[in-house]
Amino acid sequence: MFGGSRSEVEVVEAAPGKKTLCVIGAGASGLTVMKEVTALGHTVQCFDENVRIGGVYTKSYDRTMLTTSSLLTAYSDYSDGREDSPKFWSDEEYLNYLDGFATEFGLYEHIEFRSTVKSVTKCPTTGKWLVKVALGGCYVWPHRSTFLLGRGVPESAREEAATKGAATLDDFYGKAATQGFEKIKGSYVYDYYDHVTGEKRRMDPSERATAKTLAFDAVAVCTGTNTWASLPEFEGQDEYVASGGEIVHSENYKKPEVFKDKRILIVGAGESGSDICNEIAEEAAKVAIAVRGKHGHIIPRKQSDGRVTDLNTNRCRYSNPYVLGDWVGYVTQLAKKTVAKYGGGRAKDASERAVLQKIGELNMSQGTSAFSKFGCKNEGFVTAMVTKGAELHRDTFVLKGGKKAVFADGSEFVADAVVACTGYKNSFPMFEADDVKHDQVSDGVRVADLNKRYGQNPRKLYKQIFCPLFQTGELAFFGFARPAFGAIPPTAEMQSRFFALVFDGVVTLPSREVMETTAAKDQANWEYRFGYDAKRVKGLVDFQLYCDDLAEQFGALPPLRRLFFTKPKIWWKIMFGPFTMHQYRLVGPYANPELAARVYSKQPVGDLLESSITATFLIMAKTLSLLGFKQFTPNNF
Ligand SMILES: Cc1cc2nc3c(=O)[nH]c(=O)nc-3n(C[C@H](O)[C@H](O)[C@H](O)COP(=O)(O)OP(=O)(O)OC[C@H]3O[C@@H](n4cnc5c(N)ncnc54)[C@H](O)[C@@H]3O)c2cc1C
Ligand SMILES: NC(=O)c1ccc[n+]([C@@H]2O[C@H](COP(=O)([O-])OP(=O)(O)OC[C@H]3O[C@@H](n4cnc5c(N)ncnc54)[C@H](OP(=O)(O)O)[C@@H]3O)[C@@H](O)[C@H]2O)c1
């Protein structure tokens, strides 16, 4: 119990010589933080406002299929045993993977669900972080996954929950379609089943929560970079809505049937826009997709030989220096487009060939490559264009009465609804609550300032993880670096491994000044590399460069030269197979070379065409750099 005006504080106890950590959020990032830190014997408590683990994947649209394959998405220390046949998990399958991970490492016992962290302050006397949590009473709208029960629950209970869940969802959608999504979201009451125990519970947004405050040594913020929708105010939207048009953000989109026989305008062509465009095009009377600048660089989920495309997200490709990146992309794209045109590549039919060809055309016409543009790792909107007559407008628009969207080139599209797939923004309300406004943290900086200064822009954090004010690493953020091509969960795993070693005192962070100047330098590099995209998507990074950078901090970079001579098969898989995190378990702290070797023995490599092109560029770059042209120096090769 602390004195002064504070309410009762429960100090969380640690084992002798160990520390306590509060993890906010039990999504893919929070889980890996918990696993890494509990493995070192520290005490961890996690709070999540949801009813189960898995974050975004518990509430995304019904037919969500990941865009990163199971190989690329998996953590390095928990295998689904299917490395030889990677696939794209559905949200449900990925939730099962996470459930297996949480069960294997005993993480459930550290998590309190339906617990919203309301504020995070720092006690000036003890230096502890005070976390105020509201228990119960919070609201998550129903989704299929809410009714999925954990593996410990009997089959009969699972069946009952599934039936009950389906009925609840139908009821919810029926009401949402007629009463408006936003309205129903805040008032809908439903029964659900506790994911772990199978007990029946009630979710009622009007139920009052109880509050408690706990004191920890450190806080890990894992609240998700796709938690807060970014919904722009469209010019003319009032007139549009007054004439009967509806505007929905993609976070509220669940299934296409709601738009049956309607005319729909999709805004934005990232992965949400692309997937959703294709789904809605199946039901709607007509669909158009609007891109104000360039769409994400499109890579289909699967190659024409039916294998997952991210087998080519490999070290050979991304070791190429940035100056050659667009050329690598251009030549690969040209080769693939040509193969698609002349019927090679085993595309299964003419429409698949047409889609692949169109992808080549669209990417080449906007001059992007995977080196300089955020990824749209699904072909959805292209399929919708080629096979379902969806229109692409590369133009800005204004909304008007008569449910019209008028584009800058004068063309018009009448739309019953606008589905804004305009992405997300970072937000940390727990650093803005009233009780944190007057807190003194360090050198005149208040907690409330932390959010403005560091939180909202992860590039201000050291390595996009650590708040530079604390050399102890006691305030850290996970999951806020988004690889342009690559997956967020394994990136968060690398962040967690680095953090755990800092938290444990094995690795020391540099001084505040060095952390701040390094963050500024890194920011300038990412902004140079990704230009405009790096400013809108503030966490955007290159998967390989970023993970290598983290690995270097704690000594886990794969020893490529040594592997070439001693374990050439593993070297080959690392260079030409998918960029998985097993390469960082070969050496260094908490290496697991046996598991890594087992996985590499099964893991396939990318296709011959792309591998040959990227290898040719890489050898050329290496030769030029050896001849003294330093701008061609490959990355870690
Ligand atoms: C439709 C969709 C599909 C995606 N597919 C892919 C993919 O294929 N590959 C990929 O790499 N990425 C994908 N992503 C990105 C995805 O966001 C990340 O992979 C993943 O969710 C990151 O996990 P996280 O734990 O950082 O965040 P989240 O999954 O968002 O989890 C954050 C958790 O924090 C909790 N929380 C937030 N605030 C509080 C609070 N105040 N108190 C308590 N709890 C709180 C939330 O309830 C949530 O459980 C996808 C995103 C979307 C929207
Ligand atoms: N199936 C999947 O695996 C899947 C599905 C969905 C999402 N995701 C993941 O979730 C994250 C978010 O993806 P996302 O597609 O929702 O967002 P996103 O990738 O950030 O893309 C947002 C899109 O909206 C456009 N946009 C933003 N603001 C706009 C405005 N004011 N007016 C017009 N257009 C605007 C952007 O255009 P500009 O480029 O011009 O700014 C961009 O095309 C990503 O990490 C993605 O990988 C994965």
UniProtKB/TrEMBL annotation:
Gene3D superfamilies referenced in this protein's UniProt entry, alphabetically: FAD/NAD(P)-binding domain (3.50.50.60)
Protein name: Flavin-containing monooxygenase
This protein's UniProt keywords: FAD, Flavoprotein, NADP, Oxidoreductase
MF (Gene Ontology): flavin adenine dinucleotide binding; N,N-dimethylaniline monooxygenase activity; NADP binding
InterPro entries listed in its UniProt record: FAD/NAD-bd_sf, Flavin_mOase, Flavin_mOase-like, FMO-like
Membrane-spanning intervals of the chain: none
Record flagged with keyword Mitochondrion: no
Taxonomy of the source species: Eukaryota, Sar, Stramenopiles, Ochrophyta, Pelagophyceae
Family label: Belongs to the FMO family.
